[in-house]
Amino acid sequence: MDFGLTGEQLQLADAERSWLGRHDPITRVRAALDSAPITIDPAAVAHAAESGLLALLTPDAGGTHLDLAVLSEIHGSAASSLPLADLVIGAWLLAEAGLPEANPAGDGDLLVGLARGQLATTSGSTVRLRGTTSAVPMAADMARFAVVGLTDDGAEYLAVVRDPERIVMSTLDLTRSWTRLRLNESVETWARLPVGTISKVRDALAVHRALDALGGAARLLDLTVSYAGQREQFGAPIGSFQAVKHHCADMAVGVEAGRSALWAAAMALDGAPSNARSRAASAGAAYAKSAASRVAGTALQVHGGIGFTWEHDLHLFLRRIKVDQAFDGTVAEHRAALVAT
């Protein structure tokens, strides 16, 4: 199988990397750490909308999950607070369902969060939603949410909910906020989904959450290699020591192998049979999340004392990777899914 990116995908990656480099998300995180909750950069929202990224997977745009995979990793490597993959998948669902809410009412209505809900009850033209949803990144910045789940008659649904009650979660992640939605309302804007859609959404979120972690790991690899070339002990850069070389090599193997596994999973999302798609998603997510966590731990070890300080960016990526590892399927859960199929 060819895992190489196309010329267009490489250009997409370069353009997004360049934009994030000019609008460094970590600078915004640092500015808010001691004073206010982190928010999505309005410039990032405008950029994603104007460049068509939010509609990447819709039929009109014709993008693929491999295109989105490139962007998910880059946003992870920049510690971006914009949950691009969740937004893109949510927009795809709305377009697929043909809901009028697919078209935003204005600039302040561009972002649609994505959540997996509990069992819903249908009654005529409405669907009754109850219970709490899965965790939603940056939900405080969003007015409406696409909620997917099962109805009491076994059908799959997509409902659009405006301004639900939010349960703010306390997590290690300082670069994003995480929230669960508490639902207890009847919704008229909803549609039945084709069988298997929820499974595809679950697989897609697993893959792109792992790609976010992989992006953070790739950034930590770069930081660690750079630090090892500058930090000296006994009159020589620590990067010249065999043990440190082995550490950096192990980190590089984890990042590259994780990237290959997730590219394969992203390609499976774009058209593989459901069973093969789910296996590829679980295999990629399990390996990449585990590898990213190991890379983060090794980066901390190689950096030594400076890596434990609040001022160094290392802890921001380590925290983000750990939270990515916990949501949308842990390593143990994905491994268990592989064994069961």
UniProtKB/TrEMBL annotation:
InterPro entries linked: AcylCo_DH-like_C (IPR036250), AcylCo_DH/oxidase_C (IPR009075), AcylCoA_DH/ox_N_sf (IPR037069), AcylCoA_DH/oxidase_NM_dom_sf (IPR009100)
Keyword annotations from UniProtKB, A to Z: FAD, Flavoprotein, Oxidoreductase
Alphabetized GO MF terms: acyl-CoA dehydrogenase activity; flavin adenine dinucleotide binding
Residue ranges of every copy of the Acyl-CoA dehydrogenase/oxidase C-terminal domain listed in the record: 209-335
Flavoprotein listed as a keyword: yes
Cofactor(s) of this protein: FAD
Family designation: Belongs to the acyl-CoA dehydrogenase family.
Entry protein name: Acyl-CoA/acyl-ACP dehydrogenase
Organism of provenance: Mycolicibacter kumamotonensis
